[in-house]
Amino acid sequence: MRPVVFLDRDGTLNEEIGYIHDVSMLNLISGAAESVAKLNQANIATVLVSNQTGAARGFYGEEHIGKLNDRLVSLLEARGAHLDAIYYCPHLETGKVPALSIKCDCRKPEPGLVKRAYADIPGLDRSRSYVVGDKASDIELAKNCGAKAILVKTGYGQAVTDGRYQWKVEPDYTANNIIDAVNWILKDLEKQNSAGLQSGASGS
Ligand SMILES: [Mg+2]
Ligand SMILES: [Zn+2]
User: Model-level pTM greater than 0.90?
Assistant: First the structure.
């Protein structure tokens, strides 16, 4: 069984710049690829879970969301990092495009995207799962799927921490950025590992 990190996209892996109409405007936060690569090397699954309402709002077609994700993947791969899977919610109940303007079970903090990942990908260890994101809805997603919650201060994260955006949350850890978040996760897993080894030894 592999630990799994559910990663938000905007403001967590790439710079938060609002709705991205021009694909070339999607750019990685410094250190994001190296951080994902660290998870890859530690055999930890990396799964993107992202709310993308631009299509539902009529800003662009749903295929544009795929192009943005392709751009993200190619930027990551150029630096030796990969995502095990990508899921996004294109829905918004109050959107303009009827087909996407529904109340769904996958818009974070609803756990639909995470549930899909567990159904699709074998061998993910729910007891060693993490959500990393810059919004209160990411932190609430973690609570809703039994994962540890890490709020990054990039993107909207600082505003969430200050109580200026969304609502107040209590993450398991507040990280300066994705680099800090991944280092915390690796340490947390190590701690669990050595605790497991110790209890194994005392039980024998
Ligand atoms: Mg975000
Ligand atoms: Zn949805």
Answer: yes
| Angle at 65 (CA atoms; ends 154, 72), nearest 5 degrees | 50
Domain parsing of the chain, residue ranges: 2-196
Burial class (CB in 10 A: 0-12, 13-18, 19+), 56: buried
Token pair of 74 as six digits: 């190619």
d(CA 76, CA 177): 16
Cα 34 to averaged position of ligand 1 atoms, centre (Å): 19
* pLDDT single digits (tens) 157-180: 999 999 999 999 999 999 999 999
Q: Is 172 a catalytic residue?
A: no
Amino acid letter, 155: G
- Whole-number Å distance, alpha carbon 151 to ligand 1 midpoint, is 10
* CATH class (in words) of the domain with range 2-196: alpha beta
Other C-beta atoms closer than 10 Å to the C-beta of 24 total 7
Is the pLDDT at 203 greater than 90? The verdict is no
162 is catalytic: no
